[in-house]
């Protein structure tokens, strides 16, 4: 199966998870079509925008940074992430991510259900 980019739906989420600004979410696959997951998407976060703190109970979320730099907040503090890094959050842990840079932050997000 091949899914063409024009078949993928994008939505703009304002203050995603109580964050700041907006995040563009491009669903690579519609919810419910990838077994044992609830999200498979590209997220685009411009300067000054963020996804607020949220928990991952009974699931694990993977953020693979594909462009730019960001700041991830976890229980043990803030960490800089950049292209090529993989952020893994599960087991009831929480995280947030923001873009303080001039360059666009892009990431692939996948949430796997336990």
What report would you give on this structure?
The chain has a single domain, classed as Jelly Rolls. Helix content is 0%, strand content 59%. A hairpin with a 7-residue loop joins strand 1 and strand 2.
Overall 3D form? globular
Annotation field: number of helices? 0
Count of structural domains: 1
The residue-averaged pLDDT reads: 96
Distance between the termini: 26 Å
Task: Please state roughly what percent of the residues sit in beta strands, choosing from under 5%, 5-15%, 15-25%, 25-35%, 35-45% or over 45%.
Answer: over 45%
C-alpha Rg (nearest Å):
14 Å
- Going across the biggest sheet, name each strand in turn: 1-2-3-10-5-8
Given this structure, which CATH class is correct?
Mainly Beta
Q: What's the CATH superfamily, by name?
A: Jelly Rolls
Q: What class do helices, strands and sheet pairing give?
A: mainly beta
Q: What is the CATH fold-level name?
A: Jelly Rolls
Give helix % range: under 10%
Total strands: 10
Unreliable residue runs: none
Give helix and strand order, one letter per element, not per position: EEEEEEEEEE
For the report, how would you describe the main beta sheet?
6 strands, antiparallel
Q: What would CATH call the architecture?
A: Sandwich
GO molecular function, one term: metal ion binding
Protein name: Cupin 2 conserved barrel domain protein
Keywords: Metal-binding
InterPro entries: Cupin_2, GPI/OXD, RmlC-like_jellyroll, RmlC_Cupin_sf
